[in-house]
Amino acid sequence: MSVGNTRANIKIGAKVGIVLKKDQRSGKITHGVVKRILTKSSSHPHGIKVQLEDGQVGRVKEILS
């Protein structure tokens, strides 16, 4: 399981790369800072859903810090 799939690896304030709902087909990564963690379960096969500080919501694919 990769790092973006486990809730414990994601901290508020961390720089992450997410895939937005509209970009799921292309897999385009959007970078930002985590404001809120939206997924309640400890892991998710497609990545933990987060909200960035600019309000965008998507699933974490990479953790940068």
From TrEMBL:
<dbReference type="InterPro" id="IPR019240">
    <property type="entry name" value="DUF2196"/>
</dbReference>
<protein>
    <recommendedName>
        <fullName>YwbE family protein</fullName>
    </recommendedName>
</protein>
<dbReference type="Pfam" id="PF09962">
    <property type="entry name" value="DUF2196"/>
</dbReference>
